Amino acid sequence: MVVYQGELVLRDSPAASGKAVDKLQFQDTVVVNGKSDDGKWEKIRVESKGIEGWIAAGNLKRAQ
User: Fold this and answer.
1) For 8-56, CATH number?
2) Residue 21 — pLDDT band, cuts 50, 70, 90?
3) Average pLDDT of 23-47?
């Protein structure tokens, strides 16, 4: 679940310079599929939209 209090940009690569793919909203549900080698980015899938991309690490909370 997204915990960032605002729009969170989903990118096509694990970098701030990566192309924006979509924007996530607070409490959107996502599936984490991995992390970048440096641990600063998480690869996610937005099941409701059928898209994948990267977000900055630390913006997610595991749903119970």
Assistant:
1) 2.30.30.40
2) very high
3) 91
